[in-house]
């Protein structure tokens, strides 16, 4: 018999603990082995029960969820799913948690918790399954640091950031990601110079979180980052994030590339879907596209990335060792969509190198 995924629930709300326990125990492949009302109790239960996955609330007595997560990922790294309120403040805290090493998050409603969590049940258990097989890494604290790390970032110029020739601005960089993608996207974007080509991004994320995600990236990057708006022109030096709950694709208006944002049916169970963005890139951009597939579960975007390659795009796929979840990149590789398979920290330099050496979009034979 296959071993069931053991889950420990940590939440100060008795109602949430009860609901999550019921949802988890309703699955044949997982079991809730305990529920803790605060991190100090959870610490002892982790030592005793050794769970496979932890669900962790943010606001709790005796110790803040972020503080506990920071200590946990330094001392005993394990897959953690954050349970955060669907608010602007909740979104900001969630991205800090992902930066600390949390695998994923569940956005619980502020009101109607019982009905809200029950509606999210299938997504919650899917996230637990993904987390159970995710690659987690030990958090390395800065020398002399105590408590929760400082999340302010100073941009340090890199020798790789060479100003790009003007003629490269016809290019558009297209990025797709899911689980683990918020940090992977940040890793790519912070290395982009202010004159980089336009960048379009689909990250699987619910409505209410993408505005905070874009604002967070904008505060860290040389390029401007914002949610995509329907009909806006795609400009060099800017990155556009698909709004949560909406599809994002590229179209042409005269000589310009423009964003199309729409609420059509989910594709591959996702809205926004990487497939939608990449399919439009293949159709509209052709050899002016550069594709990047980052960490994520499933196969969303793999076939469309192959379409991009067939249309003349040059594509980069994140390698297994640096992925949180090697799902979408693996499927893109199997579809024959990749030109280069690289560690995350090498993707942005490789893109910039190609743009500076080949700014006119001359197609290289593979």
TrEMBL record:
<dbReference type="GO" id="GO:0006935">
    <property type="term" value="P:chemotaxis"/>
</dbReference>
<dbReference type="GO" id="GO:0008984">
    <property type="term" value="F:protein-glutamate methylesterase activity"/>
</dbReference>
<feature type="active site">
    <location>
        <position position="204"/>
    </location>
</feature>
<feature type="active site">
    <location>
        <position position="300"/>
    </location>
</feature>
<keyword id="KW-0145">Chemotaxis</keyword>
<dbReference type="GO" id="GO:0000156">
    <property type="term" value="F:phosphorelay response regulator activity"/>
</dbReference>
<dbReference type="InterPro" id="IPR000673">
    <property type="entry name" value="Sig_transdc_resp-reg_Me-estase"/>
</dbReference>
<feature type="domain" description="CheB-type methylesterase">
    <location>
        <begin position="166"/>
        <end position="358"/>
    </location>
</feature>
<dbReference type="InterPro" id="IPR001789">
    <property type="entry name" value="Sig_transdc_resp-reg_receiver"/>
</dbReference>
<keyword id="KW-0597">Phosphoprotein</keyword>
<dbReference type="Pfam" id="PF00072">
    <property type="entry name" value="Response_reg"/>
</dbReference>
<protein>
    <recommendedName>
        <fullName>Protein-glutamate methylesterase/protein-glutamine glutaminase</fullName>
        <ecNumber>3.1.1.61</ecNumber>
        <ecNumber>3.5.1.44</ecNumber>
    </recommendedName>
</protein>
<comment type="similarity">
    <text>Belongs to the CheB family.</text>
</comment>
<keyword id="KW-0378">Hydrolase</keyword>
<dbReference type="GO" id="GO:0050568">
    <property type="term" value="F:protein-glutamine glutaminase activity"/>
</dbReference>
<dbReference type="InterPro" id="IPR008248">
    <property type="entry name" value="CheB-like"/>
</dbReference>
<dbReference type="Pfam" id="PF01339">
    <property type="entry name" value="CheB_methylest"/>
</dbReference>
<dbReference type="InterPro" id="IPR035909">
    <property type="entry name" value="CheB_C"/>
</dbReference>
<feature type="active site">
    <location>
        <position position="178"/>
    </location>
</feature>
<comment type="function">
    <text>Involved in chemotaxis. Part of a chemotaxis signal transduction system that modulates chemotaxis in response to various stimuli. Catalyzes the demethylation of specific methylglutamate residues introduced into the chemoreceptors (methyl-accepting chemotaxis proteins or MCP) by CheR. Also mediates the irreversible deamidation of specific glutamine residues to glutamic acid.</text>
</comment>
<keyword id="KW-0963">Cytoplasm</keyword>
<dbReference type="GO" id="GO:0005737">
    <property type="term" value="C:cytoplasm"/>
</dbReference>
<feature type="domain" description="Response regulatory">
    <location>
        <begin position="6"/>
        <end position="123"/>
    </location>
</feature>
<feature type="modified residue" description="4-aspartylphosphate">
    <location>
        <position position="57"/>
    </location>
</feature>
<dbReference type="InterPro" id="IPR011006">
    <property type="entry name" value="CheY-like_superfamily"/>
</dbReference>
């Amino acid at each position: 018999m296959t071993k069931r995924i053991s889950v420990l629930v940590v939440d100060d709300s008795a109602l949430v603990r009860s609901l999550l326990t019921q949802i988890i125990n309703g699955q044949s492949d997982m079991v809730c082995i305990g529920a803790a009302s605060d991190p100090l109790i959870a610490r002892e239960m982790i030592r005793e029960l050794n769970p496979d996955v932890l669900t962790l609330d943010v606001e709790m007595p005796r110790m803040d969820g972020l503080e506990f997560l920071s200590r946990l990922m330094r001392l005993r790294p394990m897959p953690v799913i954050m349970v955060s309120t669907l608010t602007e403040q909740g979104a900001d805290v969630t991205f800090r948690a992902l930066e600390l090493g949390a695998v994923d998050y569940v956005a619980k409603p502020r009101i109607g918790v019982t009905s809200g969590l029950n509606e999210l049940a299938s997504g919650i258990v899917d996230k637990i399954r993904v987390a159970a097989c995710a690659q987690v890494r030990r958090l390395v604290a800065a020398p002399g640091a105590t408590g929760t790390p400082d999340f302010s970032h100073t941009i340090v110029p890199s020798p790789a950031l060479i100003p790009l020739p003007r003629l490269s601005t016809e290019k558009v960089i297209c990025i797709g990601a899911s689980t683990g993608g918020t940090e992977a996207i940040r890793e790519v974007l912070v290395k982009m110079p202010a004159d980089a080509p336009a960048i379009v991004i689909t990250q699987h994320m619910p409505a209410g979180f993408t505005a905070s995600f874009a604002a967070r990236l904008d505060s860290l990057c040389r390029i401007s980052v914002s949610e995509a708006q329907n009909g806006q022109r795609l400009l060099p030096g800017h990155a556009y994030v698909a709004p949560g709950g909406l599809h994002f694709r590229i179209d042409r208006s005269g000589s310009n590339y423009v964003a199309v944002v729409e609420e059509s049916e989910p594709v591959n169970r996702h809205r926004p879907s990487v497939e939608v963005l990449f399919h439009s890139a293949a159709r509209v951009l052709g050899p002016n596209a550069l594709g990047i597939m980052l960490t994520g579960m499933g196969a969303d975007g793999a076939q469309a990335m192959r379409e991009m390659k067939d249309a003349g795009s040059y594509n980069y796929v994140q390698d297994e060792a640096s992925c949180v979840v090697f799902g979408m990149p693996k499927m893109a590789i199997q579809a024959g969509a990749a030109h280069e398979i690289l560690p995350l920290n090498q993707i942005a330099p490789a893109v910039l190198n190609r743009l500076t050496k080949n700014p006119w979009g001359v197609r290289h034979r593979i």
